[in-house]
Amino acid sequence: MLERCGIVSIITLSAFLMPALGFVDMNFSSPAFSKNLTEKEADYLYKIQKEDAKEEYGRKKHDRHPTGYMTVEEYEMLSAPKDKMQADIPIPKPEKAADMKYIPEPDYEIVRYNNPPGSPEISFNRNFKKTRQQNAQGIVSPDYSILVYPAIYYYPRGNTVACDLFVIPLEPHGNALAKIKKANVMHRDPNPILSTEKSIDNYGAFRTLTPVDFSTDGKKLLVKEKVGGNRDGIWQTNAIVYDFNSETSYKLSEVRDAISYYWQEYKNVNLNDKRWDIYPLGFDVNEPDRVVVSGYAYTGGAPVFLGNWSVDIKGERVKLLSLSPKMVQVSMNGLKMVQSGLVPPQILKIEEKQAKYEDKLDAKAAKEKEKSELKELKDEYKSKVKEIDKEHKELMQDYKIRNKVEGSTTFNESVEKADTLVEQAHQKRAEQETKAKARAESKEQKRLEKEKLKQEISGTEQ
What we know:
By secondary structure, the chain is of the alpha+beta class. The protein is 41% helix and 24% strand.
């Protein structure tokens, strides 16, 4: 009996406690403080997004011209190494003093490099041993595609001189003179096509490479290598042909053997006991695949002519052309730029006037470009703010729809009803946006048709 009364008492007590503890069917509508908290949180995030967009706009506007105010990441990006081959090199211009109206400006022209045949030589400037490096006169190919120049090095420890031969690709566009003027060592191919020995064991020795001429097709280059000493002069000259197609070089040493053999066999003169040398003249005008060289012996008086000789570009076949010092026909294919005089003052005045006009146009274009960039950044910022405003507005509308829904949460009825209403609101907004976009496109189409009609009428009247 007592057990029964206890059970009844517990059930009765539970009936009174359940409403107090909230275990009843509740209204879904949120309390006032909860709704305000949600909206405040959304408003706070909305303000943060707008502030971020404004800060990003200001940073982009400020960073159009790099300054010291930047992040570590931006600094590392700007200070990353750049490819020098892609750098744009302007045509060098002489400096003009501010207090002088006219300064003579040199004028240049393009001439044949190997004229007279075999004449190209390397001359060292006064400060060569101080600077320890010098770039010598370059030769331009017949099609103005490349420039080849010698880079000479001085090694004080052994008092020796060595040399490399480099290639600079020329720009494909522009006139011939401008191409040569824009040639810069920054654009050269990193690896030399020919190099001399760079050992400093033989004190006072020098080894240089001098381009003599290109072949008619520009695919081969004749080079003379001079080996000697600072005290006793040139020891030996070697003729070398470099083939750009196969990237191979051929030292034409057979021509020296042929000259020595001929004078020993037919003239009974042992050239090994004499001081003698060869002079590469260029490519044969009648046989483009052969190189012409002259030989001379030194006996203390006038040099003795050893004949004009021809050898093929691989040094396999040698033949005697003549024993007469009469100059043989040699092609002249390579080119170089030389100073031809001074530009007249009248032309400089015209060029100065044209340059000022171009500078004015450039300044106007730069101003328009800057204005366009600023407008683009501002439009981007406005568009972003508009998108943030739109998202915030839609979010607040969704909150209002959910807060208006009332019902039971026992079976999740209110949540499902709120989701349905929010989805319907989204569909309605999407339909409105689609219609607005279609109206704008239709309006733009009508405007274009109207302009086209006006142009046709104007063309008919003319």
